[in-house]
Amino acid sequence: MRAWPHTGALLLMWRGAIVATFNVRPDIDAAAAKLNNTFGSKREIQRLPEVLWEGETVEMLATGVYGKGNGLVAMTNQRLIFLKHGVLSQQVEDFPYNRISSVQWSGGLIMGTLIVFASGNKAEIKQVPKDQGRALADQLRARLAAGGAPAAPAAGASAPAGAPDVASRLQTLDQLRASGAITDEEYRDRRARILDSL
């Protein structure tokens, strides 16, 4: 086994294959270890804890293109997140399970497109590796069939522990707009979604 430090990740050579370990959080590291390729998403994996709610855990990751660039799709115990973290800007789009009406997977030879229908909108995440996309679509369908609940809820748990209150979510949204990370239109759209979740 041989190791190289690389962009915040530790690259290990194991039986001829390079495997990245990120040492971010156990749940994120476990999901990232299942990715065949982390090219173009290392920064997003490192920054993922910044967009997660308290108590939120990552169950599955995939890479893909949504909107203006490559990013990371994270399936958590509470929502589906697309994260694109550039040098000058950050794009975060989240889809709470109670807002997702259906999921479609369209696979090609190597890549495919994951289509999420949520709150009357259609989000297409393209260039998702075929194995990751199919597995993600299957997990999402199972989650939706279970009514958005995690596959194995904790005994005695009532409401999702740690979902931030509306005031703190709105405050975070205000900070993103003030820093220029999101446009006024994105701000209005996300603010409406937060208020609709009440």
TrEMBL record:
Residues 169-195 form the SHOCT domain. InterPro entries: PHb_sf, SHOCT, YokE-like_PH. Residues 55-140 form the YokE-like PH domain. This is SHOCT domain-containing protein.
